Amino acid sequence: MSPATTGIVDLRSDTVTRPTAAMRRAMAEAEVGDDWYGDDPTVNRLQDAAAEATGRQAAIYLPTGTLCNQIAVHAFVRAGRFVVCESTSHVGGTEAASSAALSGIAFHRVPGRSAGLLDADQVAAALVPDPYDVDVTDLVTLENTHQRGGGSVMPVASVAAIAAVCAGRKVPLYLDGARIFNAAVATGVTVTDYAARVDAMMFCLSKGLGAPIGSLLVGDAEFIREARRLKVLYGAAWRQAGIMAAAGLIALAEGPKRLHEDHANARRLALGVAEIVPEAVDPAATATNIVFADVTGTGHDVGEWRQRLAGHGVLVTMVAGRIRMLTHADVTAADVDTALAAWRKVAADLGAGAVSAAG
Q1: Which CATH number is 31's domain given?
Q2: How many Å apart are CA 286 and CA 78, to the nearest integer?
Q3: Higher local confidence (pLDDT), 356 or 249
């Protein structure tokens, strides 16, 4: 059933979108082969389209963004060596145990100076060689947009400056671009502008672009050749994956065109929550489709806010002690109104925020 049918406004993530009618038709009619042998024509078309969209030599279609990241770090980093990342990044937090188990690597986590974003000076300091040649860094990773930073965007110039530092140290630079199309829309550049500055990059089809499953890892031909080997090694060889790739082709072609709508809805959501619960949200920090609300100042537990919002039909998540809300293809302007009405009701019920003061 669609969100409109259920009456639920699902803001937990932009991964919760349902396939469109066009995607479902394409999936039902997809031409398929066996991707283990490389002969699924729809998968091959998607990989070619991803390489073209990012300006890179080759791409590989994988089930998840996490698998893209894990394959990339395994390809770039030797066991017992370090990856430099921002301290709240997905790859260095949620995925750290995966990297330890699969690749035997560790992370040098550097707190971003603003909204989870590293700068070139911080990366240069992190790459100063260990005088005893014990701690060796093989890779620098960036996350753009930065999820825990509230969907913050790193400009192309900043990526280029960090790339120059990495090149000077002969350390590759990898971009976790799960929402890189959001970053491109927010900054008015192309995804190729970002992809050209890094050694390899991944992006998700299943987030803002609206596909039901899948991510793409892109880079030069030799890197993708090794990535294909690791895909099989990690047990991720697809068979008739063209059924899913058919939806991915539509997401890649059509999804970026409407991301500005998600950003506008997120800004309106942030402004509305800031009016209802002052100081919980900084609307100016909402650059893309992610809104964080810190309700700890209301005297009520974040879990209670989440449960009460769910009681009014609005689903949110809790991340690092804050409420997280994401707009996406299944969230309309009317849904934002519904979400804000729920916030008002919960604030009134809890005697919190401007609603209580006005009442």
Answers
A1: 3.40.640.10
A2: 37
A3: 249
